[in-house]
Each structure stands twice: as structure tokens, then as C-alpha cells.
Design goal:
Length: about 700
């Protein structure tokens, strides 16, 4: 058997994989697969990182959920599906459609997402469909929508190969998107590209950069406003591009000038400002170095990630970045643009089909016309009335009893959502919790009334979209074990029991994909960039052999912007007020480890990956450690208004004074200590609904 070309299960880089299966193809026995990078895949050209390389260590069946469970009892699929459909039907009849909610995941394939979104928004009639992608890139989506009129990433990976300057904002790229980092290193070698890291922490990526800009937590808006004001002062704004392609908020330039003019406050370290007012807390010397680099290198890419997005002002940060690119004409040109890089393998596919509470389907909204068109396309009896509840609000509604039926697919919110103790309380109160997962024992699964066994990576068949809008096939390597089913099929089976089987009568993932591709015609006629209509009639063999392709092409906005005027928009954004608290004087940041993924339900299975950082560490600046009485290797207890967790201390000069950092991965099912998402509050960005994981008020006491 030759290599099967598929894609990695982890991050939004979306690397192609060549998988050689040597055991396990004929049943549930031992499985063995050797993984190499797919040289023909444009996202990685054969490169892989440690997580992708060791995927073969995670395909065993140990710990898998292999049959439906009602409570602790094994059940047949018929019993479980009848129960799920019956409870959902009763809930709708008694409490209305908005008492039903579905919480999804960027691990789902596009076909799965499409099926759930259709069931919920067209047939149940609820807008309460949201996803863990809300925690990852919702602010970038909102910023793109405000600036461009549609959620369109305007760059491609090839632009990284052609850039002269790359600004990495809130991204520990070397750890979190390692293949993009490898690509940048090559570009640097080849053409001397300069790399700047804008991050409060001196991360492994910052260590290797040409310049580290240690911005204050949430100082990015002030920094990018100041940068643009300085570019204007130096005569580097592109007046021609602005006149032809961009509209401005009233008072836009005045707003920038006032940001730059505010007074500076000198902080604990010489030359470093703690105020967000000027330069985002960056010293004048570093700010000037940044401006000089930007002025000298018009081919600039700004790659931004969770450090920018996971903030109560994440949307404004995204717009501060897009403002800079629009005003300097560094967009829609080779090697230039604001490039949001997603965390998950299929965050983008979920966005396309509408798997977010604030969009209906296929980049369409909730206007009367759009709802009517979608209802007609689906032949839907109960098109939802409007936007639903975003992730954090959804779990608040579960907690206070407005939502009484919750179906969670392929995600572990009892660990991953902020204020996770509140989330656990919410789950324990909910009359019906259904969990579709591949793992039998997860922190969330412990609250489920019904658990449904889903197919995992290496068993599923469908498509994913990576950060550069490239759709690739994920292909099955092994037959599904025992009773595991595809998520889209589970949804269709429930729909059939609700009396809607005719609209969900798909025989394969290819059937679902074709329907989704056909539906993008609705977006196309409204002038959107999203358009897959060329794939609406491919046959099964063509779907099976589908090569990776980008919707919108390499530079999708170069023919104009999908707004009413055809122009993009400069959006005035102001820095937030600096947050201070006498009781909780430290700023808490959370992040990822190089070799772990999400809540470790998959990477925790790999002995190799567990060697990198086997336990959760609390990183503290040496001066803070001394002042707090914390010893390197000792234990520290982090406390916030929401909760507390204990960690081993790592004294690290890479932290700014007054700021600490912990990893996000550990939950009770994995370790019990270091459960970091107990700590952040439920505060979210008012536009995107994305939680502010990166900047919580905290204190630390030695244990
Ligand atoms: Fe997988 Fe991301 Fe690593 Fe590529 S960079 S191999 S997609 S985890």
C-alpha cells in the first residue's frame, strides 16, 4: 500500500502528510503508521514539526470511546440516538428552539460543521451554534469584517517567502506554528528578511528575532497607532492607495495624533514605560528601531495570533494592524499584508460554513433577505431568527437555565473555557448534556448524560481549511473502530429521528461537500469572495483525489473589497485604560507548550511529546520571584478573582516585571494541578466575544 496523502490533526498551518500504514488496516488491532511531510503540499513542502511527526503515536485505541454510552451504561446507537432526538424534541416543544445549543470545535471537518449548522439554524431554529474557535481567532474575524466587509485573510504563505520584514504579533511562532517558523528562517537565509517579535514575553521566537518589542499586555493598539502616526510623520502613508481603495472613520488621523501625544510614564525598568498611552509601553529607543525597520522595508507582513486575539480588545488590535497596512499600502501586494494565523486545523472551515453564532451560513448574515435565501436553499422549516449566543454567553445561559439541551462535539470546555469552575457548574445543572468525542474520559465527558463515539484523525474523511484559505483533504488511514461514526453522520441520524431525514440524506462526506460548495453561490451573488461553486458538481472520484486549493486565490482582495463602496475601511481604535488592582497586582498571561496541543487528550498519549515539558510551569521574572519569596523549582499558587491553581516555579528573565505566564493544557483528567483556565475571568471582547486569556489580574503566593 502506498502513502496516503492527508493533513495534520493539529494547527492552522495545515501541513500535508504522507502516511504509510503498516498495521491496523483491517480491523481494531494494533495500528502502525509512519508519518512524513507531503512534499507536494503547498503549506509545508514536506516539512513537519514534532507534533505532526509523532502523530503515529496517538492513533492507538487506548482510552477511546468505542460505543454509545447512556450514563455509565453501554447502549446501542438506536437507543442513544432515540434518546438524543427525543430530548431535543421535548426541549424545543416545552422551552422553544433557543433552549437548545451546540458547541463545536475547530477539530471538526468542514462537512461535520456544515451538517450541524444546517440542523441547528435551519431545522431546530436556534442560532446557538458556537465553537471553540471563538477562543482562538474570533477577534481577527471581526476585525477583517470591519475593515474588508468579509472574513477574508488577504495573504498567502507564499507572501512569507517574499517579505522583507515580518512583524510577529502575539505569536510564539517557533513553538505554536513551527512550520511557518521554519519557512521564515529559510526566507531570512535567502533574502535577509528581518523578523520582529512584538510580545510582552521574551519567548523562544523573540530570542531568535532581529528585534524584540516587549509591548505591555494589551499595548498593541497604542503601539500600532503610534507606528502609523510615525509613518505619516515620515511621509510614508500611501495617499494614492488610500484615495483609490480606502474609507476613513471621521477623525481617524486626529485620533492617532492624540494617542502619540499622551504623556509617558517611566516604569520599573529604565526606559520602559508601563503606560499603554504611548507606544504600548515600549521604550522610545526600541520604538524608533521598530519604526526604522518598518520605514526601510515596504514589503511587510504582520502575522498575528492568539496573543493579539485573546484579549478584551482583540478586535481593535486587529483593526490597528489592518489600519497600518491599509494606510501604508502594504496589502494586496506580493510580500505584504495583515495575516491572521489560526490555531486550529479547521477554524477556517468552520468560519466558512457559518459555525459561529454571529453568522448564518457561508459568510452570510441574518438580514431578512439572507435568511430567506438560506431557508429556500435548505428547504428549511425553522430558519433561526437571528444571531445566537457566543461561547462564554452560551455557558452563562446553560448556568442560569435558559439553555436546557447542550450538545458538545470534539472539544473539552470544562478545561478550555475561561472561569472553568463556572463552566463545570453550568454543565452539572444542564438537564441534557450530549458529548460526541473520540476519548472516553474527558473532564467534559464526565458531565454528559449521553456520549457518542466519533471518528478520530486517521479514520475521518473530509476537508479542512488552513490559515491561508487552502482547502485540503483529510483522508482515512484506518477503518473506524467498533462503533465510531463520522460526526456529520451522527448529526444526520439525529435529524432523521426528528423527522427531517430527507434534507440530511447524504451517503458520504463528498455529498455534504458538494452541497456546501453549491451553497456558496448565495455568497457569490452577494459579492462575497467565498466561492466554491466550481466544486459543486465534482464526482466522488474527483473528491477522493482533490488536490489542495485556495478559495479566493493568492491575493483575494486585489480586485476590490466586498463592501458596499468597494473600499476598505480605516477604523478608529483607542487603547484600553491600563488595568490595575491592589489585591491582584500581577498580570497573568497563558500560552501553549511546543509539544502539547489543547487539553492534551491526543498529545498526552505520545511519550515522546510528553518529554519536552512534562508538567505545567509558572514563569516569573527573577526580581518578582525574589520579592514574592518564590524559589526556582519550588511551588507557587496563582490566585485570581475566578480561582486558583498550583504550579512549579520557573524563574525566567524572559518575563516582564509584574507579569507571569502559565500553560493552558492541563485539566483534571490529565494531572489535577495547574488547571490554568480556572484563572481567567469571563470578560470578553465586546465585538468578537473572544475571552481575554492573556491579561488577567492575579497574585502569587509560595506553597
Ligand atoms: Fe501539524 Fe501545525 Fe506542526 Fe504543521 S506546524 S506539522 S500543521 S502541528
Amino acid at each position: 500500500m502506498g502513502a496516503i496523502r492527508t493533513t495534520c490533526a493539529y494547527c492552522g498551518v495545515g501541513c500535508g502528510i504522507a502516511a504509510e500504514v503498516s498495521a491496523g488496516v483491517s480491523g481494531n488491532g494494533d495500528r502502525a503508521v509512519s508519518i512524513t511531510g507531503d512534499r507536494a503540499h503547498p503549506a509545508n513542502h514536506g516539512r513537519l514539526c514534532s507534533k505532526g511527526t509523532h502523530l503515529g503515536e496517538t492513533v492507538g485505541l487506548e482510552g477511546r470511546l468505542l460505543s454509545p454510552m447512556i450514563g455509565d451504561c453501554q447502549a446501542s446507537w438506536n437507543e442513544a440516538l432515540d434518546l438524543v432526538a427525543g430530548r431535543m424534541r421535548d426541549c424545543i416543544a416545552e422551552h422553544g428552539p433557543d433552549s437548545v445549543a451546540l458547541y463545536l470545535s475547530g477539530q471538526l471537518l468542514t462537512e461535520d460543521y456544515y451538517a450541524v449548522n444546517k440542523l441547528a439554524k435551519g431545522f431546530v431554529g436556534t442560532g446557538n451554534v458556537d465553537t471553540n474557535s471563538r477562543l482562538c481567532m474570533a477577534s481577527a474575524v471581526a476585525a477583517y469584517n470591519r475593515a474588508f466587509g468579509e472574513d477574508v485573510v488577504p495573504c498567502s504563505y507564499e507572501d512569507l517567502d517574499a517579505a522583507d520584514l515580518v512583524l510577529l504579533v502575539g505569536s510564539n511562532t517557533a513553538w505554536c506554528h513551527p512550520v511557518v517558523w521554519q519557512r521564515l528562517e529559510k526566507t531570512r537565509e535567502r533574502r535577509g528578511t528581518k523578523i520582529v517579535v512584538i510580545d510582552p514575553r521574551r519567548t523562544e521566537t523573540a530570542e531568535q528575532a532581529d528585534l524584540h518589542v516587549p509591548v505591555a499586555p494589551d499595548g498593541d493598539i497604542a503601539l500600532f497607532n503610534a507606528l502609523l502616526a510615525e509613518m505619516k510623520r515620515r511621509g510614508l502613508v500611501d495617499g494614492e492607495y488610500l484615495a483609490a481603495h480606502v474609507e476613513e472613520d471621521e477623525g481617524f488621523w486626529q485620533n492617532l495624533r492624540s494617542c502619540r501625544a499622551k504623556s509617558r510614564h517611566v516604569g520599573a525598568e529604565p526606559g520602559v514605560s508601563t503606560s499603554l498611552d504611548t507606544n504600548g509601553g515600549v521604550s522610545e529607543e526600541t520604538f524608533t528601531q521598530l519604526c526604522d525597520l518598518v520605514a526601510a522595508h515596504p514589503r511587510t507582513i504582520t502575522l498575528f495570533s492568539q496573543g493579539a486575539n485573546q484579549s478584551v480588545c482583540g478586535t481593535d488590535k486587529g483593526n490597528a494592524i489592518t489600519n497600518f497596512h491599509l494606510a501604508t499600502g502594504r496589502i494586496n501586494r506580493i510580500g505584504a499584508g495583515p495575516f491572521s494565523i489560526t490555531g486550529q486545523p479547521n477554524a477556517m472551515g468552520g468560519r466558512e460554513v457559518g459555525g459561529l453564532a454571529n453568522m448564518l451560513a457561508c459568510h452570510l448574515g441574518f438580514s431578512e433577505g439572507e435568511r430567506a435565501e438560506v431557508a429556500a436553499f435548505w428547504d428549511a422549516p425553522n430558519i433561526c431568527a437571528g444571531a445566537g449566543l457566543k461561547a462564554v454567553d452560551m455557558f452563562r445561559a446553560v448556568h442560569d437555565g435558559r439553555i436546557k439541551f447542550l450538545w458538545i462535539m470534539a472539544t473539552n470546555p470544562a478545561v478550555s473555557l475561561p472561569d472553568s469552575q463556572f463552566v463545570r457548574e453550568a454543565l452539572s445543572r444542564c438537564p441534557t448534556v450530549v458529548v460526541s468525542d473520540i476519548i472516553a474520559d474527558t473532564d467534559t465527558g464526565r458531565f454528559a448524560h449521553v456520549r457518542l463515539p466519533a471518528q478520530g484523525w486517521g479514520e475521518k474523511d473530509g476537508t479542512v481549511t488552513n490559515s491561508e484559505r487552502r482547502i485540503s483533504r483529510q483522508r482515512a488511514l484506518f477503518p473506524p473502530p467498533d462503533e465510531a461514526r463520522a460526526d456529520w453522520k451522527i448529526v444526520a441520524d439525529v435529524a432523521a429521528r426528528m423527522g427531517w431525514g430527507g434534507s440530511f440524506a447524504w451517503n458520504s462526506a463528498a455529498d455534504v461537500f458538494r452541497e456546501y460548495a453549491r451553497m456558496t453561490a448565495l455568497a457569490k451573488v452577494r459579492g462575497k469572495v467565498l466561492d466554491l461553486t466550481a466544486y459543486a458538481t465534482i464526482d466522488d472520484a474527483e473528491y477522493a483525489a482533490l488536490e489542495p486549493f485556495q478559495w479566493g486565490g493568492e491575493r483575494p482582495l486585489s480586485q476590490g473589497y466586498p463592501t458596499a463602496s468597494g473600499k476598505a475601511r480605516l477604523v478608529s481604535v483607542l487603547p484600553p485604560a491600563p488595568a490595575t488592582s491592589a489585591e491582584f497586582p500581577l498580570r497573568l498571561n497563558t500560552g501553549r507548550y511546543r509539544d502539547q496541543w489543547h487539553t492534551m487528550t491526543r498529545t498526552g498519549l505520545s511519550p515522546t511529546l510528553s518529554q519536552h515539558r512534562p508538567e505545567p510551569l509558572l514563569e516569573v521574572h527573577p526580581a518578582d520571584a525574589e520579592a514574592l519569596g518564590l524559589a526556582d523549582g519550588g511551588l507557587g499558587r496563582v490566585e485570581t478573582e475566578s480561582g486558583a491553581a498550583v504550579y512549579r516555579v520557573l524563574v525566567s528573565p524572559g518575563q516582564r516585571r509584574g507579569e507571569i505566564c502559565v500553560p493552558m493544557h492541563w485539566g483534571d483528567a490529565m494531572a489535577g494541578a495547574g488547571r490554568s483556565n480556572r484563572l481567567p475571568s469571563q470578560a470578553v471582547d465586546p465585538v468578537s466575544g473572544q475571552p481575554g486569556y492573556k491579561n488577567s489580574a492575579a497574585r502569587v503566593v509560595p506553597v
